[in-house]
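Sorry to interrupt, but I need a hand with the structure work. Please put the record directly below this note.
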Amino acid sequence: MEKIGIVTESTADLPLEMIEENRIAIVPVKLDWPDVEVLPGENTFQKMREAEKRGVKSFGKTSQPSPKDYLDQYRRQLAEFQEVVCISLSSKLSGSYNSAIQAKNFLNPEEQNRIFNIDSLSISSGQGLAVLKAKELIERGKNTGEILDELRETVKHIRFFAIMEDYKWLEASGRISRLAAIILNRMAKSGLRPLLTIKKGKLSPAGIKSDTRDFPSVLFGQFKSEIEKKRRPDKKIKVAIVHGDDLFRAEKLKEMIGRNFKEAEISFLNFADDVIGIVSGPNAMAIAWLEA
């Protein structure tokens, strides 16, 4: 039996090959949107675009995983690993972390003592970087106590920024009010768009940006300004990029970072999970990074 396994949610936006290679157990966050499921499209974002064209008025609903969803993955990992670290999306954005904690109560005492929970204080690319950090610590031979201590410190320093094309999806999810969505979309039409970040686990504004159709330049500008403020030549920078079915612009952002920052390593570039997607909408883009 191997020493330490990992559980996380689908909201970590990790590529499938990375999940399989590292034997990470994924708890799905649930999406319910019958009206869009029957529409043509290779992914949820394409279906969302088709829904807009057809004037579909409904929006998808998300629900956090149940304790049983975590319990199933705990048991799967406990069969292969001596101990399990579960890294959940921010408890300030979802009740998933609480479900993950509750799931332990359905295990016997010996099994409960083998499960350890971490709040990533992030989501999407930020959560994914936290998971990869855990995997790196496991491969370096750290024990569980050391891994938990380092992860709790690491998640405080993961930087995450996102930009969206249409704020109606954020409104429909209940994250912002109708009035806020109207104001934000009017600003976008006038060439101004807010950049969003995560602070202490909560989604927060990070300033207003112009030239907002060029999402890669906006996100690269934020990355560049923050890195150059406290650049440490002895440190590598792990970067993750997630997009809403806009691979061209995501690749452009990746190329800009690689060309200008040799110390930056793109850990992964991937589609946003469906649950992330119905909140952020098509063409949204997010970047997260962490000094390694």
